[in-house]
Amino acid sequence: MAALRYDNIAKTIDKFKPKTILEVGTHSGGRAAEMINCAKQYNNNIKYYGFDLFEDMTPNVKELELHAKRDVKRKEAEKNISKTGSEYEFIIGNTIDTMPSFNPDRPVDFVFIDGGHSLDTIASDWSNIERIMNDHTVVVFDDYYENRDDFGCKSLINSLKEQGMFTIELLDPVDQVPAMHGKDILHVRLVRIRRN
Is this model's pTM higher than 0.85 or not? Predict the structure, then answer.
């Protein structure tokens, strides 16, 4: 069954019409190409920044980050994204190491965070994205688990709600997906964030 929550990505791009897209967790580049092509309806000059481990993914990292996707090579992502004809740049490595020194060469309008699932990695990714956000930046998180807060972004989102500095929208629908380990079913949705 298809994950319906991802329809919110195109809806968000249609609403905010970004020129610059940053994705944490490029993987095969399929979703990147979808986002770029959606944004190209409104702007010809799209720039994409993609963060991923690609060949640096290890079994230890997969376990720590609850990463259940297949391993991919950078070439696969390049092939998918290059078809869009848009400018793109990959930042390869663990985002805990690569994001603190990242300085985009243009303002980032739209961010999709779907990288590591551990609380530490998500907190680090958010801290680094918050640093480059402007008043127009829209951030969409995947992996808000309604029924778990020991991984995913729920704990972070709850702490941001308490701060009151951001407009936070829990987006419907909620998908039900099997957990990586065990027989649990995870109830997962996307979350959209903007500065107040």
Answer: yes
